[in-house]
Specification:
The structure holds three protein chains of three kinds. By secondary structure, chain B is mostly helical. Chain B has eight helices and no strands. About 3% of the residues of chain B have low confidence. By secondary structure, chain C is mainly alpha-helical. The model of chain C has no long low-confidence stretch (mean pLDDT 89). Classes of the chains: A mainly alpha, B mainly alpha, C mainly alpha. Chains in contact: A-B, B-C. At the A-B interface, helix 2 of A face helix 3, helix 4 and helix 7 of B.
C-alpha cells in the first residue's frame, strides 16, 4: 500500500483528471450499457405479455 | 457421443438458446465482478508507481483491456457471422448483431482512455499514432456494421449482409493495421510509440490480465442480455415465445 | 469471358447515353481539387506537399459518387435478377460491371490527375508516379466499392451508408497511393508502395467480385 491518505489516492500524483476521467468514463459506460440492454429486454417482454393478454381477451375460449 | 451432439444442437435454435442465455448471464456477471474487483485492487493498490509516468500510467489497466476486447469482439463477431452464413443458423446472426454495440463501446473506451493518457504523456489529446489510428478505423467499422444492420428491415437479409461486411472487415483489418503502421513510420516527425510502456512489472501484467478477463466476462454478459432481447423481438409470433414468458 | 466483355460493352453503352452521370464524377474531382488551394492559400511549397493527399482523397470521393448507380438501375428494372439466373456465372458478369465502372469512373480520374497535379506545382516525374499510383489504385477502389454497393442495394439511405461502409476500407489504398507520390517527392524509393498497391489490387480482384456476388444474392432473395 503506497497511499498515505485518501486525499493522496484521489489526487493520483497530479494525474487525477486523467486517471479518474478514464476510469469514470469506463464506469459510466459500463453501467449504462447493461441497463440499456436490460431495458430493451424488459420492454420486449412487457409488449409481448400485453399482446398475449389482448389476444386472450379477443378469444376468450382460450383455444387460440 | 451422438446424444451429446444432438444435445448441443438444441442450443443452436433461438428456442433453446433463450433460456440457456438467461441461466448463464448471472454467472458471467459474477465472474466479471470478481475479476474486476481483484483487477482494480491490483491496479490501484498493488501495482507500484511508475518511475517515468507517475500515477498517470494506471490508465493502462483499462486502456489495454478495452483495446484488446475491441479487436477480439470483432473477431468473435466475424466468427458468428461466418457460422451463420455457412450453417444458416439463426442464432449466429443474432449473436453477431448483439456483439457489435459492445465492441463499438470497447473501441470508444479505448479511444477515450487513449486520449486521457496521451494528454499528460505527450501533451496532446490526440496524436496520429498507429495504434490509435487503427483503433479509430476499427470504431468506424463497427459503426458501419451497426448502420447496415439497422438500415435493412428484413432480419434475415440484415444478418447475411452484416455477415458479409464483417468478413470483409476481418480480411481488411490486418491490411489496414499494417498500412497505418507503415504510414506512421514513414512520417517520422509524429511517431510516438504508445507501447514504450513502463518496464512492465509482473504485478502490472497481472492487473491488466485480470481487468481484461473482467471486460471479457462483462462483454459476454451484456451480449447475452442483448441477444435475448433480439430473440424475443424476432420470434415474437412463434408459439414457444408465448410459453417462455410465463 | 465473352459474357464479361458483353457486360462491359453494355454498361459503357448505357452510360454513354446518359453522359451527365459520368461527367458529374469527373467534374466533382476537378472542382474539389481546385477548391483546396483556394481554402489553403497559393503558397507553392505547401501545395506541393499536400497535393498527393488531396488528389487521392478527391479521387476516393469521386469514385464513391458513381457507386450507388453501379447496380441500382439493373436492380430496379429486373436485369440483375435475369443476370443471376443466366447460364454464365454471376461472378463473371459482376466482374464485368466493376470493370465498366472503373473504365467510366476511374480511368477518367487517372487521365485527369496529371493535369490537376500541375495546379499543385508537381514536377513531371511526380506527375508520372501519381498517374501510375492512381492507375493501380482506382481499380482497387472500384472493386472494394462494389461490395459496399451490393450490400446497400435497395436499402434505406443507401448513399450515405455506402460511404460509411466503404471509406474505412479505402484507407490502405489511400495510404500507399498518396504515400508513393510523397515518398518520390522526398527522394525515397517507391517500389515498396507500388508493389503493395499492386498486391492489394490482385487480392481484391480475386475476392471482391466473389463477395459482391454473395452480397447481390442476399439482396435478390
Amino acid at each position: 500500500m503506497h497511499w498515505n491518505s485518501v486525499g493522496e489516492f484521489f489526487a493520483m500524483g497530479g494525474y487525477a483528471l486523467y486517471v479518474w476521467g478514464s476510469f469514470g468514463a469506463c464506469l459510466v459506460l459500463m453501467v449504462a450499457e447493461p441497463l440499456l440492454a436490460k431495458r430493451r429486454l424488459n420492454e420486449v417482454r412487457k409488449n409481448l405479455i400485453r399482446e398475449r393478454l389482448a389476444d386472450e381477451l379477443d378469444h376468450p375460449s382460450g383455444t387460440s | 457421443m451422438r446424444q451429446s451432439i444432438i444435445h448441443w444442437f438444441k442450443f443452436a435454435s433461438p428456442q433453446g438458446f433463450y433460456p440457456l442465455a438467461g441461466r448463464m448471464i448471472p454467472w458471467f456477471w459474477a465472474a466479471a465482478a470478481i475479476f474486476g474487483i481483484s483487477g482494480l485492487w491490483i491496479s490501484f493498490f498493488v501495482a507500484p508507481t511508475d518511475a517515468q509516468q507517475g500515477e498517470g500510467y494506471r490508465i493502462i489497466f483499462i486502456h489495454v483491456p478495452a483495446s484488446w476486447m475491441s479487436m477480439f469482439i470483432y473477431l468473435v463477431m466475424a466468427f458468428w457471422a461466418a457460422l451463420g452464413l455457412a450453417l444458416n443458423t439463426r442464432v449466429s446472426g443474432m449473436m453477431a448483431q448483439a456483439l457489435a454495440p459492445t465492441g463499438a463501446l470497447m473501441a470508444a473506451l479505448s479511444l477515450w482512455t487513449g486520449a486521457f493518457w496521451g494528454k499528460p504523456m505527450w501533451g496532446a489529446w490526440w496524436v496520429w499514432d498507429a495504434r490509435l489510428t487503427s483503433e479509430l478505423i476499427l470504431f468506424f467499422l463497427y459503426l458501419g456494421f451497426m448502420a447496415l444492420q439497422a438500415a435493412i428491415d428484413d432480419p434475415r437479409r440484415a444478418d447475411k449482409a452484416g455477415a458479409i461486411l464483417a468478413l470483409v472487415g476481418v480480411v481488411n483489418i490486418p491490411i489496414i493495421y499494417f498500412s497505418v503502421k507503415w504510414w506512421n513510420t514513414l512520417h517520422q516527425g509524429s511517431t510516438i510509440n504508445l507501447n514504450k510502456a513502463p518496464s512492465m512489472a509482473q504485478t502490472m501484467l497481472w492487473g491488466m490480465l485480470l481487468m481484461a478477463l473482467a471486460f471479457w466476462m462483462y462483454s459476454i454478459a451484456v451480449a447475452l442480455t442483448r441477444v435475448r432481447a433480439i430473440i424475443l423481438e424476432r420470434e415474437r409470433h412463434t408459439e414457444w415465445v408465448k410459453h417462455a414468458l410465463e | 469471358m465473352n459474357a464479361l466483355l458483353a457486360t462491359v460493352r453494355r454498361d459503357i453503352l448505357l452510360a454513354l447515353r446518359r453522359k451527365s452521370e459520368v461527367l458529374t464524377a469527373v467534374f466533382f474531382f476537378v472542382i474539389v481539387t481546385s477548391l483546396f488551394p483556394l481554402g489553403i492559400g497559393p503558397e507553392p511549397a505547401l501545395l506541393k506537399k499536400i497535393a498527393p493527399g488531396i488528389l487521392w482523397v478527391a479521387a476516393l470521393l469521386a469514385t464513391l459518387l458513381g457507386l450507388p448507380r453501379l447496380f441500382a438501375a439493373d436492380h430496379v428494372d429486373g436485369t440483375l435478377e435475369q443476370m443471376a439466373l443466366s447460364p454464365s456465372p454471376l461472378g463473371l458478369l459482376v466482374a464485368g460491371k466493376i470493370l465498366a465502372h472503373w473504365l467510366l469512373c476511374g480511368l477518367p480520374l487517372v487521365l485527369l490527375a496529371p493535369v490537376l497535379g500541375l495546379q499543385f506545382d508537381l514536377d513531371a516525374s511526380a506527375l508520372g508516379i501519381l498517374t501510375l499510383a492512381l492507375l493501380l489504385g482506382t481499380p482497387l477502389l472500384s472493386l472494394i466499392g462494389a461490395i459496399g454497393a451490393a450490400l446497400t442495394l435497395g436499402v434505406r439511405g443507401g448513399g450515405v451508408l455506402l460511404a460509411l461502409l466503404v471509406l474505412p476500407l479505402y484507407i490502405p489504398a489511400l495510404i500507399f497511393g498518396a504515400g508513393a507520390v510523397e515518398a518520390h517527392i522526398a527522394g525515397l524509393d517507391i517500389g515498396g508502395h507500388l508493389s503493395l498497391l499492386a498486391a492489394m489490387l490482385v487480392l481484391a480482384a480475386f475476392f471482391a467480385p466473389w463477395a459482391t456476388t454473395a452480397a447481390l444474392r442476399v439482396a435478390l432473395e
